[in-house]
């Protein structure tokens, strides 16, 4: 589903990362501190906050909900999976995340913390401690061409009306990239103020850094930007913005399913094609999963690793669980640890 734009991502020092840095710079490494001090980030206007929060959240929901061909059974109701066998001397773990949640819904179960503590290497989709990645995230928000220059006057007027439902207008976002504009969709999925949210990976990262674990990423920011950009052009982004209220309803249901680790309900929710078609699923999920599955074996061989990725990357025929099983690993759900 298209409900989480990353990068990302998931994906620009995202506002949720900014919030984390402002509160925790003294506890983090020099790279994260650099992001604030060298870039002289003292004030961020409200719209940029909304867009950056939305970008990570949107990625989250994409990954939570996009893989429609789920073959898991009721016994697989877990967001934590152990990877062993195939020559590994120690098990590694994969956990599905929901990148951004309101404080009232946020909870990391003890088994997740125990798996992280048992691992030597913490791996996210993107390495937030990499200075180059943080710089790339910051650059991602700007566009070479204004949004208004890519639309007819009638289309621009219609978009302006749509943006009013998000508390902004075309003038405020005209210099942003389509990926940044798309992130506004996710603001419908975050039913709380920006100062009342938590980012799942950041909470895990704080503990990993505190315990002096190595930190790595499965891909680069540019990879995520490419995937989102190819999957959703400007016209498709505008179409998604018009579905804002439907995103809000779906997000509430997905949040509950995530909290309950209810994969059956997630499977039902992800099959709504209005949010993501097969071509978009391939770009945003399948292609990236296959690349990650090629990188993970070497990481697991060198160190016991804890992978934290959007939940939608795990399930289905082309999810990480099946891809790793196909490589000869034993991958099983963890109920308690």
Summarize the structure.
Helix content is 50%, strand content 10%. It has 337 residues and is α/β, with parallel strands linked by helices.
Describe this structure in words.
It comes from Chryseobacterium pennae. There is one protein chain. By secondary structure, the chain is α/β, with parallel strands linked by helices. 50% of the residues lie in helices and 10% in strands. It is built from 16 helices and eight strands. The chain has a six-stranded mixed sheet, sandwiched between helices. It has a two-stranded antiparallel sheet with strand order 3-5. A hairpin with a 7-residue loop joins strand 1 (80-84) and strand 2 (92-97). Helix 11 (221-231) packs antiparallel against helix 15 (278-302) and helix 13 runs antiparallel to helix 14.
Q: Stretches where pLDDT falls below 50 for ≥5 residues?
A: 1-74
Tally the structural domains. Answer: 1
Distance between the termini: 31 Å
Q: How much of the sequence is in beta strands?
A: 5-15%
Radius of gyration: 19 Å
Total DSSP E strands: 8
| Amount of helix | 40-55%
**Structural class estimated from helices and strands:** alpha/beta
Helices, strands, pairings?
Blueprint: H1 15-24, H2 30-37, H3 46-65, E1 80-84, E2 92-97, E3 100-102, H4 110-118, E4 121-124, H5 131-140, H6 153-164, H7 170-173, H8 178-182, H9 184-187, E5 197-199, H10 200-210, E6 214-217, H11 221-231, H12 234-241, H13 244-259, H14 263-269, H15 278-302, E7 305-310, H16 320-326, E8 330-333
Parallel strand pairs: 2-7, 4-6, 4-7
Antiparallel strand pairs: 1-2, 1-8, 3-5
Helix pairs in contact: 11-15, 13-14
Keywords: Glycoprotein, Hydrolase, Membrane, Metal-binding, Metalloprotease, Protease, Signal, Transmembrane, Transmembrane helix
Membrane topology: Single-pass type I membrane protein
GO cellular component, one term: membrane
């Amino acid at each position: 589903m298209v409900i989480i734009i990353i990068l990302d991502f998931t994906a620009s020092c995202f506002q949720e990362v900014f919030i984390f840095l402002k509160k925790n710079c003294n506890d983090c490494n020099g790279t994260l501190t650099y992001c604030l001090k060298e870039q002289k980030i003292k004030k961020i206007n409200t719209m940029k906050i909304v867009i950056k929060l939305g970008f990570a959240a949107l990625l989250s929901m994409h990954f939570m909900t996009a893989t429609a061909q789920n073959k898991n059974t009721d016994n697989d109701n877990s967001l934590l999976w152990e990877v062993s066998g195939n020559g590994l001397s120690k098990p590694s773990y994969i956990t599905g995340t929901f990148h951004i949640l309101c404080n009232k819904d946020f909870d990391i179960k003890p088994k997740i913390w125990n798996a992280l503590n048992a691992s030597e290497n913490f791996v996210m989709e993107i390495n937030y401690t990499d200075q180059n990645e943080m710089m790339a995230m910051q650059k991602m928000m700007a566009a070479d061409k204004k949004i208004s220059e890519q639309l007819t006057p009638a289309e621009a007027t219609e978009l302006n009306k749509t943006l009013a439902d998000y508390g902004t207008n075309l003038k405020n976002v005209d210099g942003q990239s389509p990926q940044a504009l798309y992130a506004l969709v996710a603001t419908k999925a975050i039913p709380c103020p920006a100062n009342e949210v938590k980012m799942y990976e950041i909470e895990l990262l704080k503990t990993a850094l505190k315990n002096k674990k190595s930190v790595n990423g499965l891909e680069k920011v540019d990879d995520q930007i490419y995937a989102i950009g190819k999957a959703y052009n400007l016209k498709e982004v505008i179409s998604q913005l018009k579905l804002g209220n439907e995103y809000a309803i779906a997000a509430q249901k997905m949040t509950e399913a995530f909290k309950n680790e209810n994969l059956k309900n997630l499977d039902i929710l992800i099959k709504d094609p209005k949010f993501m078609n097969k071509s978009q699923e391939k770009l945003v999920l399948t292609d990236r999963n296959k690349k990650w599955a090629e990188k993970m074996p070497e990481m697991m061989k060198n160190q016991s690793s804890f992978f934290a990725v959007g939940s939608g990357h795990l399930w289905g025929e082309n999810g990480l669980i099946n891809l790793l099983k196909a490589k000869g690993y034993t991958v099983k759900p963890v109920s308690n640890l």
